[in-house]
Amino acid sequence: MTVSLCIIAFNEEEVVGGLLSEVLAQSYPKAKTEIVLVNSASTDGTRKIFCEFAKKNIKDYWNIAVLDNPKRLQAAGWNTAISAAAGDIIIRVDAHASIPPEFVEKNAALAESGEYVCGGARPNTIDSPTPYKEMLLLAESSMFGSSFASYRRRSSGKKYVDSLFHAAYRREVFEKVGGFNESLGRTEDNELHYRIRQNGFKICQSEEIISYQQIRPTLSEMAAQKYGNGKWIGLTLGVCPGCLSVFHFAPFCLVLAFMAGIILAAVGAVSGNMVLMLPLAALAALYVVGDIVITLAAVMTAERKSGWLYLLPLVFPALHFSYGAGTLTGIFELPFWKRRLDGSAEKEIEKVKNCVINNTKRRGSDVSV
After folding, report:
1. Domain ranges of the chain
2. Nearest Cα to 330, choosing from 247, 254, 228, 192?
3. How far apart are CA 61 and CA 36, in angstroms?
């Protein structure tokens, strides 16, 4: 089977070179591999790196395409890649990723065995280890600090899940469900995988497959990422509430609880009714105790101990409240945002479907190299 390995990048000159080196090291035959590189209007040297890679290596591959995504949106970039991809299997890899040499080969084997959407765990990693970055990695890797998503951690055997991060899709999937929803900024994966499941496809996660995603290197960048993720959770309620789980709203509920507690405490202070301060005090005490217990457990299980680890009680709240505040903002902006939707996203989804179908027809019956 032929494989189209797709990478989307915006201003990633510092990291994309390392990922392309890992692409070159893949064990899957280069003659059966197409590389699709999409530059999302980068203002740095990302596109130049892509073009130099293509020029140097195209003779070894089935095909290497360098494409442009002027919309800059990540979903639009993936639609650009999918529309051009000609492989039997289309694999998505993020620019901040790291993939082992057997990544493509194992995905192709699983897809060839009959799975239509497949992949593996995608734990986090850091580019250049320092005690500070290792502390952030520990926070991001913790379920308390980040997410319950199954793809974040390795599991035994093969199982069917709701979503994957670096997934491989047989092209028949896009022929049926179309592309990504370009009206969504951070939740396009959730929405696409929801449509995939609604159309009868299963999403398979295998212990044999693994890839890695680099964390943001500073707490401020990580908190900003969480805020953006949370905001898009709030906005996605207006487009596809079914693709979200209750866990997506845990930080939002935390923020609401503290807001309610603060309001009650303020009323109590003004009225002299100290009883109204008890809910806030109880909530704060419960959260602080949980924060400290989780931190101690994380420190005890950490492979390397450093003084930075004891800042986790401050890092966890920063991530929780950033995410929850983002969701609150998204819900507030939702009615105004929905008014700006013009139906173009649905047209792009259908356009991608037609492109994939037409590419399949042009390839004819000889779909393998």
Report:
1. 3-133+148-215+343-363, 241-340
2. 228
3. 11
On whether the CB atoms of residues 188 and 69 are closer than 8 A, the answer is no
The Cα–Cα gap between 41 and 38 comes to: 9
C-alpha span between 303 and 239 (Å, rounded): 42
Tens of pLDDT, residues 7-56: 999 999 999 999 999 999 999 999 999 999 999 999 999 999 999 999 99
Residues 6+ apart with CB under 8 A from 24: 57
Any residues with CB less than 8 A from the CB of 292 and at least 6 apart, and which? 313
Please, which residues have CB within 8 angstroms of residue 281's CB and are 6 or more apart in sequence? 265
Q: What is the pTM of this model?
A: 0.89
Report yes or no: 348 and 74 within 8 Å, Cβ to Cβ.
Answer: no
d(CA 306, CA 268): 42
Specify the CATH architecture of the domain 3-133+148-215+343-363: Alpha-Beta Complex (3.90)
Task: Compute and round to an integer the Cα radius of gyration of the chain.
Answer: 22
Chain centre to alpha carbon of residue 286: 31
343: number of Cβ within 10 Å: 8
- What are the strands of the beta sheet with 97-98, ordered from one edge? 97-98, 212-214, 124-125
